[in-house]
UniProtKB/TrEMBL annotation:
Gene3D superfamilies: 1.10.520.10, Peroxidase, domain 2 (1.10.420.10). PANTHER family: CATALASE-PEROXIDASE, THYLAKOID LUMENAL 29 KDA PROTEIN, CHLOROPLASTIC-RELATED. This is Plant heme peroxidase family profile domain-containing protein. GO terms for molecular function: heme binding; metal ion binding; peroxidase activity. Keywords: Heme, Iron, Metal-binding, Oxidoreductase, Peroxidase. One of its GO terms (biological process) is response to reactive oxygen species. Residues 139-172 are annotated as: Disordered. It comes from the Eukaryota. Belongs to the peroxidase family. It comes from Helicotheca tamesis. Residues 96-322 form the Plant heme peroxidase family profile domain.
Amino acid sequence: MGITCSKNTDGENPTTAIKPATKEDLLAVQGVIDKILEEKNCGPLFVRLAWHDAGTFDMNVKGEWPKAGGATGSIRFEPEINYGANGGLINAVKLLEPVKEAHPSVSYADIYQMSSARAIELAGGPKIDMIYGRADATSAEQCSPDGNLPDAEAGRESGKYGGGSMEDETPNGHLRKVFYRMGLNDEEIVALSGAHTFGRAYKDRSGLGAEKTKFTDGTSETAKQILSDGKEAKYTAGGSSWTPQFLVFDNSYFEYLYDKSADEELLKLSTDQTLFDDEEFKVFAEKFRLSQDDFFQSYKKAHKKLSELGSKFEPEGGITLD
Ligand code: HEM
């Protein structure tokens, strides 16, 4: 299954080289992304796409960019898009392809990271202090290696689902191995895990969760999703969510994770549960459960850092939209 991608400037076609993105181009892209989010309520999918593009970063890899992986847009290429950890993300790549076609000066890496930050902001989450101007990986040869992303069931062999990371079979040890390689610390691990307040797991993507639950069946009263602006959301039924209102970005993930009597149809992966089991993680998980403000403060800093891992900016300091 090949993916057709718009031509890139990097050495491919010098006579029709595309100009670098301007603030105006980026604002136009933001408008288009906001429309897609409003029409499709696909914010969680976009957040996962951006995270899986960025989260391949390995701070120990030295050498020519983009060897160390990260937010480079390389996830759009095979083989990376077909890695077990990336199940279902082809849908996000396809949804965003027309944005690139209409705005060729804006990189895929920026489009993916912007779609995630906007999804969180529009769902009631914190405003993230994003910068843009990322360069794109330009070929399949620049894909990040398989196995750098965390697996919800640590130690699973790489396969149809699964992250393929075999490092450490305990969930807390596994998370530290994987996130420390990105240069992220315990507070950032816990804050970023809080993104599971948003979205669902699907049997045909990660192999986890149920076909549907009373929160995701699209018909029952408990499955009604009210967006942060008070409107009822249309969504495709299916999967298991971590929270009852899975299209709102808040700190309820930590509340339900902590609550041993929470509805059994809500998802708790082993890498979620360890946030309250591991003594060091627990300090932050408890803090974020008790204060949404504390969660948002930590989350927005961690998300910004994640979104810039391995990125190369043009101009060097990036472009802000404010
Ligand atoms: C801590 C280690 C993590 C593990 C083991 C993990 C694992 C998973 C799994 C198995 C799914 C279900 C995918 C599917 O079936 O479609 C998922 C969904 C999701 N993950 Fe994570 N994840 C982790 C961290 C993160 C981080 C750091 C973020 C973002 C900052 C994130 C954002 C999401 C979102 C938004 C979804 C929902 C996607 C949707 O509804 O389509 N996750 N994650």
